[in-house]
């Protein structure tokens, strides 16, 4: 059999199912329940599969008749009738197989998408909770620090007041630049902690003793 009719015959017989699978997938993107395995969906797929199988068999019959333009075609396929129960059953079985594979892949992809969406929502919720906690704590800390600076100025301890303002500036700058970060460099975190403890030491004086040990490797 020559190449062209064989290719045409193969396309009509097998690539048809690739087209059906593509249509199924595109339909499921618009109607997610189209590829579900519910009783209603399976009943719908059985009806669609019957229609698709009849159309496919009709195309196969037309392709077979068109092949008689080549003389060798009739010798290879002298008499074929696709409109028989066995051919219909085979097509319906193939349709069911395509539906099953497409439905499984679609369900798995939706499950992974839902899991990713859930993780993203949990991440956003954690960030929102942390940000809310920051907003709750920062004003209280800020008022206490400003009161301490005011007290230093009132007692004429201006150098200590300026140093305390510098520590407060470090904390506020880091807070404004990084809103509820998941991870920060240890050196930056330590700088904020040291500034915070320095401010607390102004308030508590000798009642608070601080000792920080950090190696250069840890800072990196």
Descriptive report:
This protein is mostly helical. The chain has 7 helices and no strands. It has helices spanning 3-30, 39-66, 71-76, 85-154, 158-177, 186-204, 216-219. The two termini are 73 Å apart.
Provide a concise account of the structure shown.
The chain is mainly α and 220 residues long.
SSE topology sketch:
Layout: H1 3-30, H2 39-66, H3 71-76, H4 85-154, H5 158-177, H6 186-204, H7 216-219
Helix pairs in contact: 1-2, 1-4, 2-4, 4-5, 5-6
Q: Calculate the terminal CA-CA distance, rounded to whole Å.
A: 73 Å
**What structural class do the secondary elements suggest?**
mainly alpha
Tally of strands? 0
SS element count, helices:
7
The shape is rod-shaped
Given as residue ranges, the uncertain stretches (5+ residues, pLDDT < 50) are none
What's the alpha carbon Rg, rounded to whole Å?
37 Å
Percentage of residues assigned to helices: over 70%
Range of strand content: under 5%
SSE sequence, one letter per element = HHHHHHH
Main pleated sheet: none
Mean pLDDT: 83
Keywords:
7 helices; 220 residues; mainly alpha
């Amino acid at each position: 059999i020559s190449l062209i009719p064989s290719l045409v015959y193969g396309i009509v017989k097998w690539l048809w199912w690739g087209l059906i699978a593509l249509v199924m997938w595109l339909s499921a993107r618009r109607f997610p329940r189209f590829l579900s395995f519910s009783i209603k969906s399976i009943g719908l797929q059985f009806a669609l599969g019957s229609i698709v199988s009849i159309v496919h068999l009709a195309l196969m019959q037309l392709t077979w008749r068109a092949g008689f333009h080549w003389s060798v075609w009739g010798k290879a396929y002298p008499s074929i009738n696709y409109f028989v129960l066995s051919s219909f059953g085979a097509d319906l079985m193939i349709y069911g197989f395509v539906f099953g594979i497409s439905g499984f892949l679609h369900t798995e992809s939706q499950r992974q998408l839902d899991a990713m969406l859930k993780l993203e929502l949990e991440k956003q919720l954690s960030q929102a909770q942390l940000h809310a906690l920051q907003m709750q704590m920062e004003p209280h800390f800020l008022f206490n620090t400003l009161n301490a600076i005011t007290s230093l100025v009132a007692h004429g301890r201006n150098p200590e007041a300026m140093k305390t303002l510098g520590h407060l500036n470090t904390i506020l700058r880091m807070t404004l630049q990084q809103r509820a970060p998941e991870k920060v460099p240890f050196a930056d975190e330590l700088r904020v902690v040291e500034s915070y403890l320095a401010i607390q030491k102004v308030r508590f004086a000798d009642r608070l003793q601080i000792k920080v040990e950090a190696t250069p490797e840890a800072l990196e």
